[in-house]
Amino acid sequence: MRCYKPAMTKIDIVVLGGGGREHALCWKLRQSAKVGRLICAPGNAGIAAVAECLPLAITDPAAVAAFARDHGIGLVVVGPEDPLVAGVVDALRAAGIPAFGPTAAAARLEGSKGFTKDLCRAAGIPTAGYRRFGNAADAHHYVAVHPLPVVVKADGLAAGKGVTVAETNEEGLAALADINGPVVIEEALSGPEASLFVLTDGKTISIWPSAQDYKRAFDGDEGPNTGGMGVISPAPALTDELLSRAVAEIIKPTLKAMADAGTPYTGILYAGLMLTATGPKLIEYNVRFGDPECQALMLRLEGDLAEILLACAQGRLHEAAASWSAETAVTIVYAAMGYPKTPITGTVINDIAAAEALGVQVFHAGTVLTPAGTLVAAGGRVLAISALGHDIGEARSLAYAAIRKIRWHGGFYRRDIGK
Ligand code: AMP
Ligand code: GLY
To answer: Which member of 178, 283, 400, 409 has the lowest number of beta carbons within 10 Å of its beta carbon?
Structure first.
């Protein structure tokens, strides 16, 4: 008797974005037997090794939906926040194409800090006290007399640059002067920070590993805020007890409030937490994977990412369990000199293969290949070196040994990630 195995149906996937986060997502998706064509728009020189990179107007919902329809795409995975806030997931769903990420209405959790603060207040979710103002001028007096430190935030998307924790009222006023549009002023919280990641299809909630981000540019948490200079996962400060509290007191009430409002949240919800003396409090939500947190998480993921993201996009997350390596991941960002202000680009990078030969992954964030085949820096954050180890010390030693193999005169990195 002959035995016929049903042919495995492969799906073609598009990933939107072109940073280290998207390289990590594409690297993991490529490992799945379920994936046929893998396209990344716009991608970068590192992503090109695992996916087809092509240009696409990724914040134009109609353009993304038309591309996906014309190419028979079975899943679109949205990396950055801008396409989500612009409504790319709404357009894809309207066209019947599975999309991983929240709708525009649900993406307000990142797109408007004021929206999230009001939701927290209404649902009794622990967060910093705040007031909203329609513009900077209206907030002037409030900031001038606010107890210190005072936290000044632009309400809308600001690519990680819209927050100032001011130690003097003058500094607060200076931050305010830089903001166009609505403003949120907050009391300052203190404590260790941790990032919590939760995957949801609107019904099932899957708790993903936590991470600790190093946001300041220089060692010892000095210098300006950046998009993130390094990460360790799991976050040492987020104990099981604090994690359970954060899920019960912050995540679940948020998801319930979104569902009750008729705008259920789907995709990955990334909660920035402050672990205060009275328990975890929400600093902010992001409606996407963190960068470089994603690079650390992808190293630890043992399940099939394509299967999980597709199940999530199709509302059957209960069918797809993720499993995780018990090892610790350390990711170090190698940034261009001058980042975050004015990164110097165009400098030549060599010997990434020598770093990877030690057993790490080098994810590309901002790189291009010149026509002559030379790899050059093309952004602020350029590479993310990611290593696993039995503990933080082992992962850190490996990551630093690997980064030292890379020959690049135009970059810098923090020496204290995981210390
Ligand atoms: P964000 O760009 O929103 O991730 O915020 C950047 C950083 O600002 C956070 O990681 C915190 O370190 C800090 N921050 C934001 N809000 C507060 C707050 N209410 N109290 C103290 N620090 C804050
Ligand atoms: N690493 C911080 C972020 O992705 O927002």
So the answer is: 409
CA atoms 410, 413, 342, 349: torsion sign: positive
Tokens describing residue 322: 């993720």
- CATH 3.40.50.1370 assigned to 129-187: no
CB within 8 A of 220, min separation 6: which ones? 416
Structure tokens at 68: 């996906």
User: Three-class SS of residue 242?
Assistant: helix
Place of tokens 């009275």: 278
Per-residue pLDDT of 182-228, as tens digits, reads: 999 999 999 999 999 999 999 999 999 999 999 999 999 999 889 99
**Phi and psi at residue 63, to the nearest 5°:** -65, -40
Residues with Cβ < 8 Å from 85, sequence gap 6 or more? Answer: 104, 107, 108, 110, 111, 157, 287
Gap between the Cα atoms of 329 and 417, Å rounded: 11
Distance from Cα 291 to the centre of ligand 2, integer Å:
5
Cβ–ligand 1 distance for 283 under 6 Å, the answer yes
Rounded to 10 deg, the angle between the 113-123 and 252-260 helix axes is 100
The atom number, within ligand 1, closest to the CA of 162 reads 2
Domain-wise residue ranges, the chain: 11-100, 129-187, 191-319, 328-412
